[in-house]
Amino acid sequence: MPQLHVENVTLQFGGLKALTDVSLVVPEGEIVSIIGPNGAGKTSMLNCISGFYHPTQGRITFGDHDLSRSAPNIVTSYGIARAFQNLELFRGLSVVENLLLARHTHLRYGLLHSLLYYGKASRQEAYNRAYVERVIDFMELEEHRHHPVGTLAYGIQKRVEVARALTLAPKLLLLDEPMAGMNVEEKEDMVRFILDIQREQGITVVLIEHDLGVVMDISDRVYVLDFGQKIAEGTPDEVSANPRVIEAYTGVAEQRPFEDSVTGAAAQVVPA
Ligand SMILES: Nc1ncnc2c1ncn2[C@@H]1O[C@H](COP(=O)(O)OP(=O)(O)OP(=O)(O)O)[C@@H](O)[C@H]1O
Prior knowledge:
Bound molecules: adenosine-5'-triphosphate
Structural class: alpha/beta
CATH class of the largest domain: Alpha Beta
């Protein structure tokens, strides 16, 4: 099974380096988080992995596939799907229509193919519908399936966005701030879904999230960016005890930025 390798990636916009010589590894089956203050380069990294940006220098591979110069649809065909921070959903379409559309767009048959291989195309269509139904069950969206997405509560819309990515049957799921703007209850639900995606579906997860308590609770490994550079990596315990990380977030090495907003648990950070 493929691992994601990011090797010495630099991403430059004119004079600005959004990423400088960043390397990271995402082992199969793990939840790996990328954290850092605003403007640290987290979304730029997801954009490089998913083919929206191409690194100025360095290489990104997923198993045997080189992603460094691949377009987003090619990256998707390698088994990498992304749930976007700003939802990529059609607000006037129902949940089930959005999910079917996503699956069709990425796994479509052309008209000629459908005419020549009508039986195969209709079997594929039935399979797609069954697949989407399984995703709806898994993400507990049954009661919303026929509602236009734009009428749903924001937390449910975020869940539909993750479901949209899951309909592409990814091996690796990129989640860009899946809990942004959610209340505590909605965050609890999303945490449960992310853990189920990893444990029950066996999907590797790369997570960008500002709620550091949640990140520290559910990640196997954490990478920390600051001003486009990797300043730390390790287990949640290693990273949250790292004075450089604490300073990047607070400007002060004694403060404790990692309290869990979901459980309200005490801060785990004991600065050295
Ligand atoms: N298309 C672009 N053109 C020019 N500069 C960009 C572009 N995309 C990102 N940047 C710059 O790159 C830097 C990193 O931005 P990025 O969005 O990756 O940070 P981030 O860590 O995701 O921040 P946030 O947590 O606020 O979303 C910022 O200085 C940003 O302004």
